[in-house]
Amino acid sequence: MRKLDPDKHAARRGQILNAATQCFAERGFHQTSTAQICAAAGMSPGNLFHYFPSKDAIIEAIVLEDSAAMAARSAELAREDDLRAALRRMLDEALASLADPLYRRISMELMAEAVRNARLFALVAENEAARRAGWRRLLQGAQAKGQIAAGAEPELLVDALLVQLDGVFSRLLLDGDFDLDRYRDLLEQQLNSLWRAA
Amino acid sequence: MRKLDPDKHAARRGQILNAATQCFAERGFHQTSTAQICAAAGMSPGNLFHYFPSKDAIIEAIVLEDSAAMAARSAELAREDDLRAALRRMLDEALASLADPLYRRISMELMAEAVRNARLFALVAENEAARRAGWRRLLQGAQAKGQIAAGAEPELLVDALLVQLDGVFSRLLLDGDFDLDRYRDLLEQQLNSLWRAA
C-alpha cells in the first residue's frame, strides 16, 4: 500500500472541495456529476474515491469545513485586544462573503438541499450553532472588557446580527432593487447602536 | 360543452392551490405527484387538468396568487387614514405568516426551486417587486401625510424592512436558538426608529 503524505492529502482534499463548490454553485447539486467534479479538480474518478466515497460526502464536507473555518476565525479574532474592532472585522468579512455570487449560490444550494435531507439539515443546523457561538464569543468578550455596553443580552445581540446578515443574503439573492452599497450605512448604524461603546 | 360557472371555477381553483401548497410544504415539489394533489383536493386527476395543465403551472399559480394577494392587501391598507397604524398592521401580518411553519416551508421550496428554474425565478422576482411596491406605497404615503418623518429615503426604509423580515425567516428556518418572541421588541424598536413620528 502506498503511504499517504498527510499534507499532500489535505491539499488535494481542499482542491476537490473547491472544485465541487464551484460546480455545485454553477449547476446545482443534483445536476452535478462526480465526473464533472473530477474534471474541475483535474483528477481521475478512481482517485476521487480515495478522498470521498460519494457526492453526498463531498457536500457534507463542504459544510463541515465551513463550520471549522468559522470557529477558527472567531477564535482568532477573540484573542485580539480590541474586540469592538474585531467585531467590525468579522462583520466586514461576512458582508464580503455575501457580496460574492459564488458564496450566495452555494449557500442557497445547501439550504435547499438541507430542507429535504435530514442528515444535511443536522450539519447545517450545527453550522448555524457555530456561527452563533462565534459571534456570541466576540460580543460577550467585548462586554466583559467594557468595550461595548454591558446592558444588552448577548443572545439578543447575536439575533440582531444574524437577522441582518441573513436578510441581506436573501435580498441579494432575490431582489433586483436591493443595493448593498445603499444599505451598508444603515446596517452599520443599526448594529453600532446595539454595540455602542460602554 | 359544459358551461363553467365562474364562481365555482374560482373556488375549485383555490381549493386545488391550497391542497397543493400543503402537499409541497410537506414533501417538496419534486416528491409530490399530481395524484397526491388530487387526493388532497378531493378530485379526480382528469378533472385537475381542466384547471392546471401541469404541476409547474400549479407552482407558478401559487406565486402569482401570492403576488396578487400582497398587492390587494397593501392597496387596501394604503386607503386608511392612519398609515403609521397601517404599516404596523402590515408588519404584524408579515410576522404572523413567518411564524407559520407551512408558510416557511412553501417559501423555502419556492426559493429552492427558483434558483434552478429561470421561469419560476422570474415570477419570484416579480413577487419580490410586488412586496417592495406594497411597502413603498405605505411608507411614501405616511411620509406624504406627515405621519412619519420625511427625512429617510423610502427605498432605504423598504430595504430595512425586508432585510428584517427575510432575516427572521432564515433564523426561524435554520436556527434552533432563535426565539421570535425574544427578538420581537428589538425588531419593533429598530423599525420604529426608522418610521419615527414626523
Structure description:
- The structure is a homodimer of 198-residue chains.
- Chain A is mainly α and 198 residues long.
- Chain A has 2 domains: 53 residues, Orthogonal Bundle (Arc Repressor Mutant, subunit A); 143 residues, Tetracycline Repressor, domain 2 (Orthogonal Bundle).
- Chain A is 76% helix and 0% strand.
- Chain A is built from 9 helices and no strands.
- In chain A, helix 5 runs antiparallel to helix 7 and helix 8 packs antiparallel against helix 9.
- Chain A starts with 5 loop residues before the first helix and ends with a helix.
- At the A-B interface, helix 6, helix 7, helix 8 and helix 9 of A face helix 6, helix 7, helix 8 and helix 9 of B.
- Chains A, B: Keywords: DNA-binding, Transcription, Transcription regulation.
- Chains A, B: This is Transcriptional regulator, TetR family.
- Chains A, B: One of its GO terms (molecular function) is DNA-binding transcription factor activity.
Concise description?
The first copy, chain A, is mostly helical. Helix content of chain A is 76%, strand content 0%.
